[in-house]
Structures are given as structure tokens and as C-alpha cells.
Amino acid sequence: MNKKEIRTKYKTLRKQLSADEVEEMSLAIANQTLKSNIWNHQTYHIFLPIAEQKEVNTDYLLQILFGKDKNVVISRTDFSNLSMHHVLLTDTTTIRKNDYNIPEPIDGFPVDDQQIDVIFIPLLAYDKSGNRVGYGKGFYDNFLQKCRKDVIKIGLSFYPPEEEITDIRPEDIPLDMAVTPNEIFDFN
Q: Is 104 labelled as part of a ligand binding site?
């Protein structure tokens, strides 16, 4: 399937999820991450979910990260150039939804892309090679190109992988792993 077909399929599937299903599967995803060997790093980038899009609720992962005393980084998007600006998430970070209902920090201590060790990535779908499909704006591709080569890229999904995404471009950056409620897929 191509990206357009996959976007349509997974937006439809997510719309059908109840709020309880989103919460149960999000908790299961957080618990699955505990089975991986990603916890020996210090700085983790995480997305704050767009609830209206029924994205994975990362609150459970945030609890794990803070419980393990990790540095947690979140981003603010700039739609004028499709970039992301990162800040350290602290107790004093103010968060507001932007015009697209994306929860974002209003302020905070800036963090450079090169400082990030692990990135939890929102997505609509992915394939068995780790190629991913998001909403199509390219924010994460732009962000990932600026990161260190050894940064660990983890997609969070309610669903198992598609067989193949047929229209992958050279600038598309694949995942290292994907975590679902039932399984971890390692693409390395």
C-alpha cells in the first residue's frame, strides 16, 4: 500500500477506538517498553499526544521516564518551516494546544537535537522494514536528520506493521523499533 492509502486506513481504524481502548493499549505499550534495552540512556524525546486524533497516550511513558530520573524533552512545532524546537520538560513547563490541537511547551530550557539519545515517534503506521507513515508534513524527518546517527528511533503504534509501504522516499528515515501493546518490533 502507498502512504495515502495507509493514512486513510489507519485514521479510520483509530477513529473507531473508544477512549478506554486508547488508554488500555497506551498503558500496554508503556509496559512493553520496559522489556526493551533502551533505558541506559539519559535524554529522551517524547511527543504529547493529540487526543482528538486518538494518538498513543504518552502519560504512562512519562511516568516511567520520570521514575527512572531521565531528562525528558518535548517540542514546539514551527509550521512556517516545518521544524521542531525542543525544550526540557520540567514541573514549571507551561503547555498549551496550538491551532492543530498539538500540546506544546510555551517556554522552557532549550535542548539541541544532538543531545537527544532516544526518540519516541508518533505515527499512523509502519512496515516490516521500519518505514513509517505520519501525517505527511515531514516534521519528524526534518528533526531526525539533525540528530546524531546513533539516536534510537522508536515508533509507538496500536497496530502491527504493514507488509510494505510502497512509496518510500530517500529522505524518509526509518525506525529502529516499534512498540505495540503486544510486541516490540526491532528493525536493526
A: no
**Is 54 marked within a binding site?**
no
Task: Supply the CATH number for residue 89's domain.
Answer: 3.40.50.10420
Q: Name the domain count of the chain.
A: 1
Determine if residue 46 is labeled as part of a ligand binding site: no
Is residue 126 part of an annotated ligand binding site? no
Determine whether the annotation assigns residue 108 to a binding site: no
Domain boundaries, position 136? 3-186
CB contact at 8 A, 156 and 58:
yes
Q: What pLDDT digit, counting tens, does each position of 142-178 carry? A: 999 999 999 999 999 999 999 999 999 888 899 999 9
For the chain, the C-alpha Rg in angstroms (whole number) is 15
Residue 33 Cα to chain centre, angstroms? 13
**Binding site annotation covers 119?**
no
User: Would the pTM of this model clear 0.90, i.e. be above it?
Assistant: yes
